[in-house]
Amino acid sequence: MNSDILKLKLKRIDPVKYAIVATLVYLFILLIVYVPMILFVSLIGSASDIGAGAAMLGGGILGIILMVVILGVFVFVLTLIACSILNFVLKKTGGIDIDFEKAGLDISQIGEDRRIEK
Questions:
Q1: What is the DSSP letter of 113?
Q2: I want to staple 95 with a disulfide (CB 3.0 to 4.6 A). Which of 5, 11, 57, 104 is the partner?
Q3: Of the candidates 70, 42, 67, which has an alpha carbon nearest to the alpha carbon of residue 56?
């Protein structure tokens, strides 16, 4: 067996922290993709007959704000549920074996201050 391989077992994931991270990543991607798309569609829609209805609802800006909030809550709740189910399955199956390759630091060295000017 290779001595540079560190075997660890994933037993549990904190659902709230994981849901927060997943939600923030999803919202970041949503802002990159969804915001330009909605602004472009509102620009096209303002030239058509539905422009008055869209203006009544606040146009694309209100759509962006509402979708980011609604989808953020939706993704957070779904990720929280999914992570809780994952923890249940991990508990019943004994966890997942994960192999890490040693890349220079031992686990005991993580967090040590390695600056020269100590």
A1: -
A2: 11
A3: 42
Residue 51 lies in a domain: yes
Whole-angstrom CA distances from 115 to 105, 110, 111, 118 are: 15, 13, 12, 6
Residue ranges making up the domain that contains 10: 5-102
3-state SS class at 42: helix
Which of 3, 4, 2, 1 minimizes the C-alpha distance to 103?
A: 4
Specify whether the CB–CB gap between 6 and 102 falls below 8 A: yes
In this structure, what token pair is assigned to residue 29? Answer: 């991607």
Local structure of residue 77 (DSSP, 8 states): H
Q: Do the domain assignments include residue 45?
A: yes
Distance CA 57, CA 112 (A): 55
- Look at the chain and report how many structural domains it folds into: 1
- Whole-structure pTM value: 0.63
Residue 11 lies in a domain: yes
53 domain-assigned: yes
pLDDT tens digits, 61-105: 677 777 788 889 999 999 999 999 999 999 999 988 888 776 666
